[in-house]
Amino acid sequence: MRVSRILLALVAVAPLAACQSRMQTAALDDESAWYTGTMPDKPFDVPLVDTSRLDPKFRRQTVRYTGAEKPGTIVVDIDQRHLQLVEEDGSARQYGIGVGKAGFSWKGEARVGRKGVWPDWSPTTTMVSLNPDLPRTRKGGLDNPLGARALYLYQGNRDILFRIHGTNEPWSIGEQMSSGCVRMLNEDIVDLFERVPVGTQVLIKRSGKARV
């Protein structure tokens, strides 16, 4: 599928973003400039982003990890807009993320209760109360707000309705735009998805001091 066709599909879903967002005017100036091609995947190829358009601190990289969490833990820093996967050697794989608008972000401990490939999307009750015109479901695909993969966060056996997922709004990485979920570039969530099993511990931390 040509990238131009992918972009048309992505534009169509923008107002529906799970963990909803309002698109930034600057991002709309030339959406096609955000994309460089595709990565093979099933049942859809993953649109690849020109990461040179991101602030370097939000590009995927390996960093030193100084926290106390054990290897294999996902650590999300809402204030710094980073997600880190702690490695065995004192390092972490770090990814840039988009986070929730003021008043929507969650913090605490959870685990990956299940994983989804090109998952279906449904709005939460809160999202519907704020926007009754939202569709009640959307099948997985290029026009789906959850993107190519999703990690569903649970506490005990309860789905707490927060997700770590892909996005078709790459310009939202590093921004505070969603309704609470953690969003990543599609190629980054695919990378993380392959590295973490169901049961992975997740720590989401937020002090509020760095929020804008």
TrEMBL record:
Keyword Signal appears in the UniProt entry: yes
UniProt signal peptide: 1-26
Protein name as it appears in the record: L,D-TPase catalytic domain-containing protein
UniProt keyword list: Cell shape, Cell wall biogenesis/degradation, Glycosyltransferase, Hydrolase, Peptidoglycan synthesis, Signal, Transferase
Domain called L,D-TPase catalytic: residue spans: 72-205
Active site: H165, C181
Family (UniProt): Belongs to the YkuD family.
PANTHER family, alphabetized: L,D-TRANSPEPTIDASE, L,D-TRANSPEPTIDASE ERFK_SRFK-RELATED
PROSITE patterns referenced in this protein's UniProt entry, alphabetically: LD_TPASE
Annotated pathway: Cell wall biogenesis; peptidoglycan biosynthesis
